[in-house]
Amino acid sequence: MVWAGINYGQQIQLHFVVLTQVEQSVPGSPGGSLKLTCACSGFTLSSTNMYWICQAPGKELEWIIYYHSDTYKWNAPVVQERFTALKDRTNFYLHMSQLKPKDSAVYYYTRMV
After folding, report:
1. E strand or H helix at 39, and its extent?
2. Is residue 55 within 8 Å of 61, Cβ to Cβ?
3. Where's the Immunoglobulin V-set domain (predicted)?
4. Among positive and negative, which fits the CA dihedral 70, 76, 81, 82?
5. How far from the centroid of its chain's Cα atoms is residue 47's Cα?
6. Angstrom distances, CA of residue 47 to CA of 37, 87, 98
7. Dihedrals phi, psi of 52, to nearest 5 degrees
8. Taking a C-beta distance cutoff of 8 angstroms, is the pair 65, 76 a contact?
9. Are 57 and 103 in contact (CB under 8 A)?
10. C-alpha torsion angle, residues 95, 99, 105, 111 (rounded to 10)
């Protein structure tokens, strides 16, 4: 995902942000665990609000995790205690444990701009 922002007025600035999903497809099994990774560049990850979103087949998008830091975070009740997010200098992670069949979905990440 690439995002370009323009500041309008006398001065034009372009900002490029790159978010790259490391794993394209990850098989899981009920009761198992998985880790998804979002490689980030072009912005300071430590001061950025990040999100994990999922979409199960035939369902709407669902916001499942907001994460700024260990102090400022939120998990949707459907994944509470089973899914956690973490950040380091360049990556945003989703740790998924105690997988259930209903967790089968496409997972997306995004940031607040």
Report:
1. strand 34-41
2. yes
3. 33-111
4. negative
5. 15
6. 18, 10, 30
7. -115, 135
8. yes
9. no
10. -20
> Amino acid identity, residue 70?
D
Q: What are the C-alpha distances in Å from 96 to residues 19, 21, 25, 29? A: 20, 16, 14, 11
Radius of gyration of the chain (CA): 15
pLDDT tens string 82-100? 999 999 999 999 999 999 9
- All structural domains of the chain, each given as residue ranges with its CATH number in brackets, are 18-111 (2.60.40.10)
Q: What size, in residues, is the chain? A: 113
* pLDDT score, position 102: 92
The confidence score (pLDDT) of residue 21 equals: 63
CA 29 – CA 110 distance, rounded (Å)? 26
Which tokens in the block code for residue 68?
A: 């700024």
pLDDT digits (tens, 9 = 90+) for 70-86: 889 999 999 999 999 99
Which tokens belong to 81? Answer: 């205690």
Q: Compute the distance between CA of residue 88 and CA of residue 111 in angstroms, rounded to an integer.
A: 15
